[in-house]
Amino acid sequence: MRLSGILWVFVLLVILAVFGFLFGLRAYQAFHQEELVAVVRCEAPPPGASYRFLLWHTPVIRGVPGDSNSFPMHGDQWTIGGDILKWEPWAQLIGLKSCHKLTRLHSRYLKAESEMTGPGSAYDLNGGTDALWLWLYRFGTQLPVVEAVYGNAAYCMAQPGSRWGVYVTLSGYLIKPLRSAPRQTQAKVR
User: Fold this and answer.
1) What is the gyration radius of the CA atoms in the chain, in angstroms?
2) Is the pLDDT of residue 81 over 80?
3) Has residue 107 got a pLDDT over 60?
4) Is the per-residue pLDDT at 95 higher than 90?
5) Is-contact 86 98, C-beta < 8 A?
6) Is 127 helix (H, G, I), strand (E, B) or coil?
7) If DSSP codes are grouped into helix, strand and coil, which group holds residue 33?
8) How far is CA 34 from CA 30, 37, 165, 179, in A?
9) Average pLDDT, stretch 82-109?
10) What are the residue boundaries of the structural domains of the chain, listed by start?
11) How far apart are the C-alpha atoms of 24 and 93, rounded to whole Å?
12) Is the pLDDT of residue 167 over 60?
């Protein structure tokens, strides 16, 4: 009789350990997720061009690359940004991912003075910030599962020949260098 009680306690402890491990794994996944949302490639301008570099933007939706577009850019860096809706931590834990919309691609200078005097480049992506996002900016945090609604951007040095992945995380956009060859998509030049 005593051995059977010890066996039940052991089985219960094993079950609790497995559930604890699975919960910890789910929490780690929920709070460290990154989703690739765009691939950006930088090229040198052709001779005589009035811009500093050419940026190619390829949206990625659920892992599938879309059509690429090129954007002539001025400045030393490029910036990509958009709208972010961040859920409360408990909602993220049960699987809700940050909602986002990339809305802008623009150039950036290293020095503020150059930003004020040099030519700039700015392009709307996905139609820019729309009426739904404007509503979310105003009223989103009044919803019980929304922690924050805000704009977010990340920027990177313009290095011709480089490719980057743009990721959305729980808190905003992240840029990482890519080394593998891109999948071919149809090109549209702006």
Assistant:
1) 23
2) yes
3) yes
4) no
5) yes
6) coil
7) coil
8) 10, 9, 11, 18
9) 90
10) 1-32, 34-189
11) 10
12) yes
pTM value is 0.76
> What DSSP assignment string belongs to 43-61?
EPPPTT-SSSEEEEEEEEE
Token pair recorded at residue 146: 């929304």
Which residue reads 């019980």 in tokens? 144
Q: What is the mean pLDDT of residues 30-46?
A: 86
Q: Which residue has the tokens 């690429």?
A: 68
Residue 189 scores a pLDDT above 70 = no
For 190, what's the count of Cα atoms within 13 Å in the CB-facing half-sphere? 17
What's the distance, Cα to Cα, between the start and end of the chain in Å?
Answer: 80
Please report where in the chains the tokens 């699975």 appear, as a residue: 22
CA distance 77 to 155: 7
Amino acid symbol at 131: A
Distances in Å between the alpha carbon of 40 and those of 47, 57, 100, 176, 182?
Answer: 22, 5, 18, 10, 10
> Looking at residues 51-68, what average pLDDT do you find?
93
Tokens of 78: 């490029």
Mean pLDDT of the chain: 86
Contact 136, 143 (CB under 8 A): no
Contact (CB, 8 A) for 161 and 40: no
- Partners of 95 in the β-ladder: none
> How many residues comprise the chain?
190
